[in-house]
Design a protein that fits this description.
The chain is an alpha+beta fold. It is built from 2 helices and 6 strands; from the N terminus they run βββαβαββ. A 4-stranded mixed β-sheet has the order 3-4-6-5, with helices on one face. A two-stranded antiparallel sheet has the order 1-2. The protein is elongated and about 50 Å long. Bound molecules: zinc ion.
């Protein structure tokens, strides 16, 4: 499986850090797209919801997505997801997160910032 360097179009391996042709940082490239994931739709338990969050983050890292809109609903899952996202931000795995347009039932998680050159 390959992905494409957004700067020069070269096909590179999934785990390539820098494009061998133009030296762009592949992991930071984004096409500006946003994943959407509802992790509190079906009465998930907190561990199930966090596992879904983890899975969608993994999937997003394999794509050029800029971020993920995570629907958390209200209540305990939302609190635990916020705690998890805080930790991921602290450890550098995501760039940041915020309430989606003031909607407290959803977070907009920024995976990468699109600092292309
Ligand atoms: Zn390139």
């Amino acid at each position: 499986m390959l992905k494409t360097c957004l700067d020069c179009g070269m096909e590179v391996g999934l785990n390539t850090a820098n494009c061998p042709k133009c030296d762009a940082e592949i992991a930071k490239q984004t096409d500006g797209s946003i994943f959407r994931c509802d992790i509190a739709h079906n009465r998930e338990t907190i561990p199930q919801a966090l596992a879904k969050l983890s899975a969608v983050l993994d999937a997003a890292r394999l794509e050029h997505v800029q971020g993920i809109r995570v629907i958390v609903g209200r209540g305990l899952i939302r609190d635990e997801v916020m705690r998890q996202l805080s930790w991921l931000k602290h450890s550098g795995e995501i760039m940041g997160f915020d309430h989606d347009n003031g909607n407290t039932g959803a977070f907009l998680v920024t995976i990468r910032g699109g600092n292309r050159h």
